[in-house]
């Protein structure tokens, strides 16, 4: 018995144990990964501030209340401020685009002759601020075409995109204060958040 006790004492003194001799440590790495897509979103517009000569928003449409001054028959001034909640998860570009380069008569085809001395398209400006940057698209209504302006944004952004549409008193594509030809006038203004 003393021989067994002596062997056990030697084994304990050396730090070896039957359990320790059989212990093995196993490790593995398990990566956890995910991906966030490059996405930009624009929520529906809402009015921000006072309207001047606009009826308000109807869905995403702004309608001018009195486009023509009843005395001079020239364009009335108008102003509207609209906000959009927006998010872009990557560096991006904001493009402001006018489909017609101004408000054009909807019944007039491109290149059709206009009556001399009459306004047949109305210029306006679209002032935009987003992510600490500002730009203005000035449509001149001299030719019916796409007009655009852009902002490069160097980082992901979230917040309010502000848009102000301004039509000057007497605005015209022929001369200031020219009478406006009767009819419906329209343009489509696009705000596009896109990759750079």
Summarize the structure in words:
Keywords: Signal. It is a single chain. It contains 2 helices and 14 strands. The chain has one domain: Immunoglobulin-like (Sandwich). The strands form 4 sheets. Strands 1, 2, 5, 9, 10 and 12 form a 6-stranded antiparallel beta sheet that branches. The termini are far apart. Residues 4-13 have low confidence and may be disordered. With 196 residues, the protein is mostly beta strands. A hairpin with a 2-residue loop joins β9 (125-130) and β10. It has helices spanning 2-13, 18-22; strands at residues 40-42, 46-47, 54-58, 61-64, 78-88, 92-98, 103-105, 121-122, 125-130, 133-138, 147-153, 157-167, 185-186, 189-195.
Summary tags:
196 residues, mainly beta, Immunoglobulin-like, six-stranded antiparallel β-sheet, 2 helices, 9% helix, signal
